[in-house]
Amino acid sequence: MRLPGHPLPPAFCQLRGSGQEEIGMKAAVIGAGMMGWAAAYDLVHNPEVERVKIIDQNPQALGSLKTFLDSDKVELDLSDLQKKSASDLLRGYDCAISCAPYSFNYRLAKAAVSAGCNFVDLGGNNEVVQQELSLHEEAQKQKVLVVPDCGLAPGLVSVLTKILVEELGNAESIHLRVGGLPQKPQLPLNYALVFSVQGLVNEYVEDCVALRDGKKVIIPPMQELERLKFPIYGELEARTTSGGSSTLADTYEGKVKNLDYKTIRYPGHFEKYLELQNSIGDRATLEKTLLNMLPKGKEDVILLRAAGEGNGRKIQYQMIDHYDPKTGLTAMMRTTAFPATILAAMIGTGKIDVKGAYTQEHFAPAQQIIDELAKRGVEISKRLYLG
Prior knowledge:
Layout: E1 25-30, H1 34-44, E2 49-56, H2 59-69, E3 74-78, H3 86-90, E4 95-98, H4 105-115, E5 118-121, H5 126-133, H6 136-142, E6 145-147, H7 156-168, E7 173-182, H8 197-205, E8 208-212, E9 215-219, E10 226-230, E11 234-240, H9 248-252, E12 258-265, H10 269-280, H11 283-293, E13 300-310, E14 313-322, H12 331-348, E15 356-357, H13 366-375, E16 380-386
Parallel strand pairs: 1-2, 1-4, 2-3, 4-5, 5-6, 6-15, 7-12
Antiparallel strand pairs: 7-13, 8-9, 10-11, 11-12, 13-14, 14-16
């Protein structure tokens, strides 16, 4: 969303040319959970990154991550952000990546701005994103960039929407479909927990934002059942869920006729989940029940399809990514953390020179992000249909 008095960045804000950027980036990763592991891994393996500070209140998590990374670049900071000033922790760093629960992100973004540190996060809640965007003027004064929604969905889907709109010229419709799944259906819900249970329930119970006939609309979650197929995985189903489209309806209202986001699951999952949700009602109890009920496994798959139509053409971007046994990183970890660390590195090394608070569809160099993901083994294919 572009707030009142919140101008778009200049059209020329793309990657700077070789030799113009600063090197020796100092990055801070907030949170040593699954996404923090993947973010730290990618930053440590980036030759332009000099130091990676990992902040968490759990000494066991920090110690395990330090052992996993096995790098002199890593610095551990055992801190409770509920009690300690995040500004002090981030001062002197070029960019911070929040892999903490989304409820922390507004306060962390404010702290980063105060510290003169660029900030990106993985997104997950529309209200928190609006709070972060309200930091625009303060971020400009401090000469830093705040970018919420840099994970998978929201995040990578926003980057793909941006490139679809640019390629089509006049986009009639954009349909975004994403699912994080076990590689094989798991009982009792044909699903396994591949990210936080709080994030899962948030997707399933909060309202969804879409474009219909060029106008922004609010639609209920878990509606509009759709059948679709992916190679290897066969027939799947998708329903409307919250958060994935984030600010896209605000950005493209009046420019794209129809835009929506749905989550992909194995057949039968949604029906079984809704039966459970209706029998419980209370959100806290539902989250606890799902946490105990759902199996947890590393062997997952991420399915993504971003399709746009306009000017007699249809363009489809598609990604199928699997758990990587060589690194131990799940597909959800890779496809959520890597888009954020790629953007953070572009910002922290000075390749992106935008100041303020923006979501990615306003400025991110989409093709370069796709290319960087490919270097990390996350392949996004493109198909063009004419007529």
